[in-house]
Amino acid sequence: MSFTRPSVALLGATGSIGTQTLEVLRLEGDSFDLVAIAGGQHVSELAAIAREFHVLRIGVAHECDREALTDLVDVDVDVVVGPAGLTQLAQSADIVVNAVVGFAGLPVTMAALAAGKRLALANKESLIAAAPLVANVRSTPGATIVPIDSEHCAIHQCLASSAQRAGYPDVKRLLLTASGGPFRGWSKDRLATATKHDALQHPTWKMGPKITIDSSTLMNKGLEVLEASALFGVGADRVDVVVHPQSIVHSMVEYVDGSIIAQLSRPDMRLPIAYCLGLPERFDHGWGQLDFSQSMELSFEAPDEEAFPALALAYAAARRGGAAPAWLSAANEVAVEAFLADQLAWLEIVPTVAAVMDQYVDDPLSSLEDLMENDATARRLAHGILQK
Ligand code: NDP
Ligand code: MG
After folding, report:
1. Is residue 1 part of a domain?
2. Domain-located, residue 51
3. Which of the listed residues 318, 343, 368 is the one where a domain comes to its end?
4. Which listed residue, 11, 209, 292, 304, has the most CB atoms within 10 A of its CB?
5. Ligand 1 centroid from CA 210, angstroms
């Protein structure tokens, strides 16, 4: 690492990515200075992190938690609240880890890039919803996005072989791998019986509830197609999905000469998290190390787009552009929340999103206000459909 310790803001510190980022920071304590954290509801966990890492700037989602948090930390801390608080914290460190879930992560992405920071991005929803706006703030001097999402982190590494020209003309396509989720191979009839318990059993990754459900519907992979397109400036028609149940090949880049470069490791999110923090250095922890003395099978198959229509919805949103991806992501958040609250059957999640998308009217997405309006409209329509 460099001689000066980069400062880190970890926003979404209490979640799955947040917790694994803290594990990396514990091991690499001399390399980084954690200066700010934020979370939503888990106030006592936030306080415990603040005490352990001596963090003095903390964000919470709700004003009513400010006092409890201040009492729990027991030293003089600066508590900031809500989206404005996230904005402040995202401007306050050299590296900003956006590990917030859902559209709530938008202020982090926008503020970190506008302030010229390195954005270690797990929160795909903000990039997908705000892609045209993110493209503008990304040109701020110093601003850079390094993806934590394992597939995109793999592609980031595989693209090191490219001539690095805009739009990557030497790249034929990006190949996103997908585990296929817990329902891979299930028939439509069987999918009608899928329960919350079934949907929360991801075969290879342990993640937060929202992305686990998105993985079960393959909406996560659909969102990742949009994420890859926005991140790397490659049209979604050059992003393909390959089902790879072992989750060892994290994604691939196919070049125009037929060469395919892949990134392999055991599935362990600490690897992409550490990659994003340490770039251009790597840490010597061997988290993803594979043992080739043991036989290992790597298999690949096409996704079942009939049983999992979320993928086609995402490609359609990519073709429409503008606010369509924001609608897709917002409607999906509402449907997944309803499913997790036992108000919607698993089989109805994606049709709910599709019914919202049927009402989408083209909007080029010109401003943040425009995005907030589009997000609110998509959510209102989704709630309306759920009430019916
Ligand atoms: P979790 O649900 O485990 O954690 C979400 C985090 O966001 C928690 O710290 C939560 O705080 C915080 N949060 C929620 N709402 C707010 C808010 N309004 N203000 C501030 N903080 C808030 O999710 P994951 O860690 O699984 O996922 C986080 C992001 O990373 C998602 O966008 C996901 O798609 C992406 N991702 C995750 C992967 C994984 O392996 N988990 C892999 C690839 C991408 P609290 O708990 O205190 O309420
Ligand atoms: Mg992923």
Report:
1. no
2. yes
3. 318
4. 11
5. 8
